[in-house]
Amino acid sequence: MITRIQRFLTTPCNKRWTPQVIFWFSLSLTFTVVYSLLALREAFSGEYIVQDDARQHIFWMMRFLDPELFPKDLIADYFQTVAPAGYTTVYRVIAALGVNPLLFNKLLPVVLNLVSASYCFWVCLELFPVPAAAFSATLLLSQALGMTDTVVSGTPKAFVYPLLLGFMYYLVRGSLWFCLGAIALQGLFYPQLVFISSGTLVLRLFEWRNGKLGLSQQRRWLCLAGLIVAFLVMLPYALKTNEFGPVISVAEARQLPEFFPGGRSRFFYDDDPAKFWLKGRSGIRLTSILTPATNAAGFLLLLLPLFPNKFPLVKQISKEITLLLQMVIASLGMFVAAHVLLFKLHLPSRYTQHSLRVIMVLSAGIVFIILIDSVFKWATQPSQSGFSGIFSIPNVLAIATTTIIAAALLLYPSFVDDFPITAYKVGDTPSLYNFFQQQPKDSLIASLSPEMNNIPTFAQRSVLVASEYAIPYHVGYYYKFRQRTLDLIDAQYSANLSVVKEFIKTYDIDFWVLNPIELKADAIKDRKWLKQYQPAANHAIQQLEQGIKPALEQVMASCSVFETKGLVVLEAKCIVRE
Fold first, then answer.
1. β-strand pairing of 424-426 with 49-51
2. Which H/E stretch holds residue 567?
3. Fewer beta carbons below 10 Å: N end or C end of the chain?
4. Do you find a cis peptide bond into 413, omega within 30 degrees of 0?
């Protein structure tokens, strides 16, 4: 029996669609489907539910269904402009078929998860032809994606894993056209991936031959063709003029509280170098890479091949395993480059957190099966002949070890709070959304209420500002956004009604949403986002603490047109007439 278990788990298989491969591949997809359905259940648990990042990247796509929505909207125009072409095209085509982008956004992750899992399984099988290891790696990937909202967001980053794993699969198989297609798609959906793929191709151009470093004769044409495609697909980005540019400089970023402790887009950790390099937007995101924690076993892949007698299954590792090292070097190289050219290549963490996670799940999946095989080999070796029976000490230890590893892999999500992690947000003021849906499509709403984060998505109406859209990387957009917020804070807490009226005329405001609680000093102190906007925030706090009442309180009763859950909607024209 012990021998049958060993064969079932550790027997290599160099053919593709054998019963053994089909079983493990089907089991891999089964877990992926189960995890995806858990997220889908949450997505459809109510009417007003949207993924957190989708509030930025999807709301403007309602223009595909109704071009009259969000006219002259700074926020909608910005997020539409920075959206990658391939990502936009997918949603545009789906909308042309009559499918609501918000609905498609919830369904898309299921497809992306399945594609990612499929490529992961076959990549692992190319690197290490043991189907159980491919299952192990795929299970770890599905769990990792269930512990982050990357794929479930349905935003550009959701395409990272299928495109990266697809590239890896076609690269190790030497499939020229499919590999080139994967690179092209990376550029259309998530351009940062192209740099990692290009770095990998450059490294694969060279190989050790007869003790010397030289060009690889076998790989050179694929690598050169891949680099040409990478250049062509990235050329439009280099030549494109962004109407919301330029990208913010380091010097400019260091002048904004948004990039420091408490900031909406914290980047700098001057007081904690370890956190700067390992965590957050500036770091390699080590915690993310080692999630689930079982991924840490992947480090053993560096050691086990050094002891082939104790771990005989390492002999099955393909020479293509060097791809993992090449991708590590390419990822870390781009991480360094992103720091050197800070913000020009966007965030350094984008070049490590996804690619290194893929490398770790593949490595860990291989390691677990090598360890299991080693234990079984030990249990059945001649030196253990003094023991007999299924319940002999060696057999019990082998089965116990296998059971512990299997339990760690299969049951890990049970010990994770709120698995899968989806970051879905629930809109809790449906009557407010319905009210604004009845207003003209060119309506513009001013408010500092957190509920404004949901209005563009659930009501399809424009907001002047909201914390969800305070993305500071392009100065042409953010400086306008920041000035709007400063002016709104000044106007909302001003004791002079003429200041409020002038603000309404300047920005052509139609409605103002107020929560009386927000007209108190503590409300501003408790909002980290508002405290970024100085000196307006501190000035408002000082006035309120001195007992100076905002002028808007005077018109709240006479200009109110709708109320719900503590929120009062004021008609801007009424305020101007006061």
1. antiparallel
2. strand 567-571
3. N
4. no
Q: Residue 204 phi/psi, 5° resolution?
A: -75, -10
Q: How many CB atoms within 10 Å of residue 37?
A: 12
Q: Are strands 462-463 and 444-446 parallel, antiparallel or unpaired?
A: parallel
Model confidence pLDDT, tens digit, residues 223-257: 999 999 999 999 988 888 788 989 999 999 999 99
DSSP state of 97: T
Question: Distance between CA 159 and CA 84 in Å, rounded?
Answer: 11
R_g over Cα of the chain: 28
Largest CA distance in the chain: 99
Give dist(CA 261, CA 276) in Å, integer: 12
Torsion of CA 8, 9, 15, 16, to 10 degrees: 110
pLDDT value of position 70: 97
Mean local confidence (pLDDT), 457-482: 96
- Return d(Cα 293, Cα 319) in angstroms, integer: 27
What single letter denotes the amino acid at residue 555?
V
> Which H or E run contains 34?
helix 19-43
Q: Are 384 and 378 in contact (CB under 8 A)?
A: yes
Q: What is the pTM of this model?
A: 0.93
The count of residues in the chain is 578
Structure tokens at 498: 């003429």
